[in-house]
């Protein structure tokens, strides 16, 4: 389980590419890129972090499900191949 306080989207993608569950601090540049609870779990304050940490620590299957969804989303929607295809689509259209 990773607690991610970085405002960089790339850090979120790096952790999800490892198939690791992460609790990520809410930030306007990072959190809107994923659906909360489906691909990642966000928190605002320390109390919120502690509550979510305890919940996911005790519910390992739910934690694994979120991590697996984040890994799949990363693999199919944020790979270098996907980004290259998006860039070519923009350049050619």
From TrEMBL:
Location of the Spore protein YkvP/CgeB glycosyl transferase-like domain: 8-86
Q: Per its UniProt entry, which superkingdom is the organism in?
A: Bacteria
This chain belongs to the protein called Spore protein YkvP/CgeB glycosyl transferase-like domain-containing protein
């Amino acid at each position: 389980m990773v607690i991610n306080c970085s405002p960089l989207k790339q850090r979120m993608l790096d952790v999800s590419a490892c198939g690791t569950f992460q609790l990520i601090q809410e930030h306007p540049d990072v959190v809107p890129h994923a659906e909360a609870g489906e691909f990642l779990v966000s928190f605002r304050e320390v109390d919120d972090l502690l509550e979510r940490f305890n919940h996911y620590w005790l519910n390992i299957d739910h934690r694994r499900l979120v991590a697996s969804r984040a890994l799949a989303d990363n693999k199919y929607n944020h790979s270098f191949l996907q980004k290259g295809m998006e860039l070519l689509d923009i350049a050619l259209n």
